[in-house]
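Try it yourself: sequence plus 3-methyl-2-oxobutanoic acid, in.
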Amino acid sequence: MVTTRELRSRSDDEPITMLTAYDAPTAEVVDEAGIDVILVGDSMGNAVLGHDSTLPVTLEEVHSRTAAVARATDDALVVADMPFLSFGVDEADSVENAGRMLKEADADAVKLESGPHTVELTRRLTELGIPVMAHLGLTPQHVNELGGYQRQGTDPDAAERLLALAREHEEAGAFSLVLEHVPANLAAQVTAALDVPTIGIGAGPDTDGQVLVITDVLGLDEWSPPFSKQYADLRGAMAEAVTAYKEEVEGGEFPAEEHSHVERDVDDVY
Ligand SMILES: Nc1nc(=O)c2c([nH]1)NC[C@@H]1CN(c3ccc(C(=O)N[C@@H](CCC(=O)O)C(=O)O)cc3)CN21
Ligand SMILES: CC(C)C(=O)C(=O)O
Ligand SMILES: [Mg+2]
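Structure, out:
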């Protein structure tokens, strides 16, 4: 079993592996492959729910997908990604919403897209026993404020602000930190400055771990971000299977004898 305690102390030569999953069969495959952390990402908005951003994703959607993933996972740490406006507005609501992920959906931890407004919340949740993974750099819930999904931390002021926020979240108790779409040399410095592990996406090779969105890895979507890598063409495999089924039904080949059964007792009901 992967624990937040074990991840915190993971030595430098054993990179942390993390992937998203949004359903039980996918979580089973990811867990059985020995991936350390499964993130039930709000990227489900784009990846599986048909939205064009993460903003419409609801607490109930992440809650139900987290429960499905947790039921299928034996070893990996399951992290629920808190959706847009489910945290950071009101402290009591934030605690209740994050708490439901642990109490009801069986997550091991939550992730919050972080900023100056999440330092005290990270402290509070950690104090209450809800482990927090922080997330800095490109925070997609800010897409409207940022005006797109551009690289972050690219000038000295922004880079210094990011490093300071990373330190503040570590001090507040975050057990790890996702760094998204930031320069590799900045991610390396943040990684060196922190004791807790950094997990990069589009942040170069020098973080303590890597994370990608599972549908990008599997090639399920036509589009994927510039920093991701496609390790399979499941979209192609799915299209082939669906087309083969259609052709067999239209050609009268499916169902065959082995897919049917006949009961002589019901021969004469018409
Ligand atoms: N399937 C999937 N994979 C992801 O990695 C992902 C999601 N969905 N949804 C939430 C966010 C959005 N992400 C994105 C989306 C677009 C770019 C991108 O195209 N960036 C370009 C141009 C950005 C612009 O100018 O708007 C770049 O060159 O940085 C990067 C990350 C990463 N996250
Ligand atoms: C890409 C990761 C870090 C994420 O936040 C998500 O999948 O929602
Ligand atoms: Mg997310």
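One thing you can check immediately is this: The first strand starts at residue 16 and ends at 20.
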